Amino acid sequence: MEIANTGSKIFNANITIKNIECSNIKEVNQTDFNQEIWDKAQQNRMRTIAIQPGTSIEFYVKLSIPAGAKLNTWNCTEIVAMSNEGKILSNSITIESLIPNPNNNN
User: Which site among 24, 43, 65, 73 is 20 to 30 Å from 95 CA-CA?
Assistant: First the structure.
């Protein structure tokens, strides 16, 4: 993913990532995923990103299935950038994921 600073001052963005209710998926079975945010080199975990004016920073979101998760369940994960004061700085992005049952795949 990428976050850009189109303003004229440096700002810090806190990347918030959380499991949310899948509102447009009919199945009621949901599984909470583990979530991490990594820098572009995938060497360091991060939460707060300092962005210089006129620049952008790439980062990776790692979603992982917890041990013992049920098959044929869904997860919805929301990602948004917020200021230190809690002001929303970006549009939210929702990632919808299915844990398929391999026995049902042909």
Answer: 43
